[in-house]
Design goal:
about 25% helix, about 150 residues, seven-stranded mixed β-sheet, globular
């Protein structure tokens, strides 16, 4: 497994980015200010975009794994890479996600704990309903992990 920083033409990974964030104009809000990494294991298996949110907080804005490669440890490997790369440079790694029975448990297994909730985030900011695991995403759940 190799982790590579993507500095140019980040949108070439748009299909992968859209797996984690279904609306391109939402991706546009962070893609250029964020640092993007891809996980290459005989081909790109996943990507992650992180942003500096100030006050020692690094945020995962987008993390996605190629559908046929999910549940094989690539997501956890990307999270661990980010933790190791930024430990000592930031104090907290956070992620905002929908209150999904698929996503929240993944982050909890990676050592994150719930920190706050933004009510109505998905219904207020997306132009269509978003469903994951049969559940409509309404609120944004923030989880944090100490670095």
């Amino acid at each position: 497994m190799v982790f590579k920083e993507v500095k140019d033409n980040k949108k070439r990974y748009l299909d992968l980015l859209l797996l984690a964030d279904e609306q391109e104009d939402m991706i546009d809000r962070y893609i250029e200010k964020g640092t993007m990494y891809v996980l290459d294991d005989n081909g790109v298996k996943g990507e992650c975009v992180v942003t500096d949110e100030g006050n020692g907080i690094l945020e995962i804005k987008n993390i996605a794994i190629v559908p046929g490669c999910q549940s094989k440890g690539y997501g956890k490997a990307l999270v661990n890479f980010i933790v190791e790369k930024y430990a000592g440079k930031y104090s907290v790694l956070q992620v905002g996600t929908g209150d999904s029975p698929m996503t929240v448990p993944f982050y909890e297994k990676c050592g994150f704990v719930r920190s706050q909730c933004i009510r109505g985030f998905f219904t207020d900011n997306y132009d269509h309903p978003i469903y994951e695991g049969g559940v409509q995403l309404v609120d944004m759940i923030y989880l944090q992990r100490q670095l």
